[in-house]
Amino acid sequence: MLGHQSGRRGIRGLAGAVIAIFLLCGFAPFAHGAVDSLKIGAPLCYVVTPEDPGAEMPSPSDYRCHGRPRGYQAGTLWLHMPVQARSAGDDLALLVHLTRFDRLTIFSTYADGAVRTFGVARGDFGTHWRDGGQIVFRLPDRDVPVASLTMRFDRLASHDLLRARLMPGSEADREGTLVGPLIGGALTLLLLGTIYNLSLAHGVRRQFIAWHGAWAACVFIWGLIWSQLALLVVPGIAGTLSSQICTFLSTLAIACATASAVTSLERSLLPRALRIGVLLLGAAVALVGLPAAFAVGPAIEPIGQILGVLIIADLLAVTAAIVTAWRRGSVEARDFALAWAVPMATLGATQLLDLNDRLLGGGAQIAVLMASAFQTIWLSFAITRRLARLRIERDAAQAAQAELDELARRDSLTGLLNRRGFIAAAGEALALAERENIAFGLLLIDVDRFKAVNDHFGHDVGDRVLRRIADRLRQWEGDICTAGRLGGEEFVLIVRGLAGRPLAEFADRVRIGIAGQGYDGLLPADMPVTVSIGLADTGAATSFPLLYRLADEALYEAKRGGRNRVVIHASGRTALPPRPARRA
Question: Which of 171, 175, 332, 489 is catalytic?
Fold first, then answer.
């Protein structure tokens, strides 16, 4: 029940985000009522002539105000409009949005017949470009009002892609003041998202994060070029080349986003046919983006229509994949669905709604840029949170495994290292002692006549005796000593930094300490617990197996010599320590 409630809340949030994007794109014009959108027939009229740099403006009677212009891609398209009666001295600005053409010339005709001419050419926008992919022409302020405007486009790619607006200069300045920080902020977020996601993908080796980083990089570069900020560095790409690069980058970004969304979902939760189909649609968008970017002439319009259909199909397929994985319990689908919803809804809105005059004049492009910046930050946060959870789970699993490994190295009765754990620790300690050129000794400790304890008092008492011996040995553990239980009643100590007589004296203190540990309540006073100890040091052996064998021989000598004593094996011979072993 809780899972269904969570799913319903997520779907409601997803729907809310989609609705919010459509409301933003559809009903937020950010434009003053004095702004005139210029389109053919409302109020632009047109005439098409052969390309001739020295041609004069056609007469007003040559223009047509209905139908669609034809054959202008290889010639010149003239667009003419009368300007509504305005007061003399009105400050007007004509804004033409980035599109493909070889040359644009503006003719501003005043009521007294005077004409002012200015323009831009492919690869050279001069000082007329502005943030937001717009070319701005400030009409000269004269004592008489502007009567008409004429725009001349040489080799315009498509009049359907042409967007122009006439507005008061103050409105244009206000838009410029607002759009610059918005675009700069969005590009900054996209750049940070690109660096973060690509670095994260390199660190954690996750495919979908790499695809998301590639998507953010494409949108960032696209935003730099579309906004024309790239002209600060490479002014020669102004115009057609910028538009072509932007078209290709936008389709490549869609393909990368598709791959990121699909690869973020578990393979087992997504039907193979759906997964492959979505990826193929994303690849198709990128492939069609190539001819769309470089097409010229009438072919650009049908290619653009095909591309629009593919984009809508891709969005629907990605949505189907996310919903399918979500319904099957995908954690990634729940985490990332809402982040993907915002740019997907925005992209869908750009295909279905006319946003040309919305959002500070930036239209569909600025909507996509803002949504992409939002999505990058959202998804980067979601990825980080998801990876943090995975890291916590991994750390917990590693801690549990380390605890299991440690338990496997420990004796279950005494808590000391068992045979396997002690041999590994002793090998490491001996290697370290050799590197640092310090002495190293091994003490094999065997409880005397322990079988009698088990036979007379039972194994439970015997186990408690062994635990007390282990407690006493544990008191010596530290930087120079490591204790272990090899099995039965046999214990072991490795000692770093002692050899010869000092090692034998230390072993004797161990013998006395074990005997004096106190076994009241376990054994009668006339039944003391004593141990025999065999020693060997690195003066007699340089490998652990040989060291162990020599210590074992010394222990056997201690047992044969009467028990409750210490014997050290030195220089290849078995000898008693300098002073006789004392009885406990």
Answer: 489
